[in-house]
Structures are given as C-alpha cells and as structure tokens.
Amino acid sequence: MLAGHFAVGLALKARYHQVPVLAILFSVLLLDWIWLVLVWQDVEHFRLFFTTKSLMQLDLYDVAYSHSLFWALFYAVGTFLVFVRAEGQRHWAAPLSLGIFSHWLLDGISYSNLPFANFGPAFHCGLGLEAAFPILACAIEGVIVLAGWGFYYQTQGSAAARGPLWAILMVLLLLLLAPFLWTKFFI
Questions:
Q1: Alpha helix stretches (DSSP H) within 16-133
Q2: Can you say whether the dihedral through the CA atoms of 8, 10, 14, 17 is positive or negative?
Q3: Distance CA 39, CA 61 (A)
Q4: What span, in angstroms and rounded, lies between the C-alpha atoms of 39 and 93?
Q5: What is the full DSSP assignment across 87-101?
Q6: Measured in Å, how far apart are the chain's first and last C-alpha atoms?
C-alpha cells in the first residue's frame, strides 16, 4: 500500500497548501518509519513470502507498537497536540495527524492481522485483501492512487507546475505494480 500512502499524502497537500509536502509525506509514512526502527532493533518482526501466484507479500505478524490501532491513534493524537500548541505551525496539526492515521486505515485494507494494541486482548483488525484477493487490493490501491494524484493535480494552476506531476504518477504506478513486477523479472 506504499503508493496509496503517498497518494493520500498528495491529497492532503492539495487540501492543506501551507504545510510542506515533505512533512505530509513523512506523516503518512511515520508508522513505517517506526516499524523499520523497531524491526532493526528486533522488537517487531515480519516475513516476506511469495504466494502460489508468485506474488511478493509481507506478513506483518508482530507489529504491535508501530501498526496497532491504539498506537496509530496515540501517534496521531500526540502529533496533533504537539503542533496545535506550536506557535506558527498550528495549521500543521490536522493534516499531519490525518496523514498518520490514514496509514493505519489503508493498511487495514491490505492486512488482516493488525493488532489492536500491545496489551489487553489479542484482537486483530483488517480486511486482509492483499493475501486473499491481491488483484482486488491492487485495484483499490490504484483507485486511491489515481484519486489522490488527481486531486493534487487539480490544485496545481499552471502547466509548468503540472508537467512534473506526470512523472510522480508514473512512480506511484510503478510502486503499485512493484509486487507483480518483482516476481515477473527477478524470480
């Protein structure tokens, strides 16, 4: 869902013009940055596997601190509270918080084993479309990519500003198709 995260970031940037695009793109990937650090520290774990259709997929079986509902809300609310109190950057609070929580919502489409929290009952959330229906998951992400990119594209006034956006769309589409292309060319 990497391309989908970036597309949501572009849509947020289109709505909140004053916030730098890098800040918004960092926010939509914050849970993954936390995940990478925690995997590196051997706190969280994942598996990379290939389905019977040779489609590359991730199994996020131990992501209680980075991708649980509780911690995603905690990071989003914490970010909101920090920026709403920051003089001169109050307008960053809503888009950054929405970006952070949007990550969990989009991953909920792809994965079925997102934990509720690292404590309490072992309740898991998510639709799990990536494993059950990979083509449908890719199609949904494709709609998200086109909608987010299209929304951003419409906010760019001049033709000169819109020109490079086609390259961004191509990169997003390559990210979207990467699991399929990886297995076709490298396996």
A1: 21-28, 30-40, 69-84, 93-110, 129-132
A2: positive
A3: 12
A4: 28
A5: TT-GGGHHHHHHHHH
A6: 21
Whole-prediction pTM: 0.88
Helix (H) or strand (E) holding 159: helix 159-162
- Per the CB < 8 A criterion, the answer to whether 112 and 127 are in contact is yes
Per-domain residue ranges for the chain? 2-182
Q: What percent of the chain has pLDDT over 90?
A: 61
- Decide the pairing of beta strands 124-125 and 56-62: unpaired
Residue 28, by phi and psi: left (phi above 0), alpha (psi -120 to 50) or beta?
A: alpha
Q: Report residue 11 as tokens.
A: 């849509």
Query: For residues 72 and 138, what is the distance between their CA atoms, to the nearest angstrom?
Result: 23
Predicted confidence (pLDDT) per residue in 108-156, tens digit: 998 888 999 888 778 888 998 888 888 898 899 999 999 999 999 999 8
- Residue 57, beta-bridge partner list: 49
Instruction: Report whether 144 contacts 9 (CB < 8 A).
Output: no
Neighbours of 158 (CB within 10 A): 7
